[in-house]
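step 3/5: co-fold with manganese (II) ion
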Amino acid sequence: MSDTLTRVLDRVRAAHPESVQRLCDFLRIPSISADPAHNAQTAQAGAWCVEQLRSAGLNAQLMPTAGHPMVVATHEGPPGWDGPRILYYGHYDVQPPDPLHLWTSPPFEPTIVDGPKGKRVVARGAVDDKGQVMTFIEAFRAWRDVHGTLPCPVTVLLEGEEESGSASLEPFLKAHAKMLAADVCVVSDTGMWDIDTPAVTTMLRGLVYVEITVHGPSRDLHSGMYGGAVPNPCNVLASIIAQLHDANRVVQIPGFYDDVREVSAPVKAQWSSLQFPESEFLGDIGLKSGFGEKGRSTLERTWSRPTCDVNGMWGGYTGAGAKTVIASHASAKLSCRLVADQEPAKVLAGIRAFVEARLPDGCTYELAEFGAAPAFSVRDDNPFLGATQRALKGVFGRDAALIGSGGSIPAVGAIRTHTGADALLVGFGLDDDCVHSPNEKFELRCLLNGTLSHAAMLHEFGLMRR
Ligand code: BES
Ligand code: MN
Ligand code: MN
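step 4/5: write tokens
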């Protein structure tokens, strides 16, 4: 390994305790983008990132949008440099922490605790995405501390609305496409294969999210006086939901699978070579066997098959004891994870047709759309992939796994559309990090190895020429 890089990696290791402290400062800011009551704190988290990037030697600013502000930072690399420019994308907002009573420590009071894999920090946003954003900021800082400069030009874009729909992202990308122009977009908002094995995510699923409300009688009714003689919206909605899958767990929305592309044989073979520890994956969440589309493995079900899930449903009486009532309406939040080459608009139309075909006389429905994004695949000729694999191998001493992911990061598709930069998804989360759940955590070993990886990737990118 070159002395240039070794010195940076040593610096990263030496600075690790301070890096942990800085991450804890970040985690103390409750930047819940979905909740307007937290708007000031969300902006504060953006401002905190600007400060961090400035102190790491970048030119950084907070740029307003119609929603939460964007953090934009640049560094020109060594004087007169003519290598590729790297765009780093991440988000400084977090999911709401509820249900609060299930947290073992308050969600915005980061707590370092011992776990089977060493020390970990527990807090909302620990892995998604504050801890991961810090992996590249700390890598910039180490390069600047040791060599006075970054080894290549970089641009940083951090948004504050990723967890609540990214409404301001497209308009911002359109308005500032030139300022954000780069040769590749590096994102750390996904996972590793396991704590010792790094991963590059090559596929993300897309997402269509709706809320359906079924209306029936014009007011809530006594279920003895009216029951059996009128449509009950709770029953009607439950029946519609129950028909979404057949006995083989195949989604019944019309046209749903029309554009679904099967994963190629070589990719399937590469996935089987990963030897996915299915019983561990399921055991961690208290399950003994998988459940899903017949004839598909758990990996296929999460990485390359589309889904339709109810995320919440309500209506009628849900308080203590019994109340004999027929509610006048019932609602459900429903989302579909999409795979290539499903079109979000077509899936949305299919959901409407599915509901309409099953609505009895006397009922009407409303459908609200909460965003839609297609699946994303990294182009397999991405020239930055090799450099990244070399860097990861240098840090972990083993090859990075090429993996898919069931999650969605709509921003990466939008960034490619508007700036032309393909995404390179190198994340440091683990399956048991409790993303979006109570007691979200980030292993300190992942923070350190992630920072070392970004430091090594920067070195590799700095050796590339246009
Ligand atoms: N970082 C996640 C996406 C993710 C999760 C990737 C797990 C890989 C593994 C991101 O912050 C996220 O939560 N995305 C949302 C979509 C968004 C539109 C709210 C998701 O996947 O539900
Ligand atoms: Mn995220
Ligand atoms: Mn998230």
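step 5/5: annotate
The pocket of manganese (II) ion (ligand 3) is lined by residues 95, 128, 163, 436 (CB under 6 Å).
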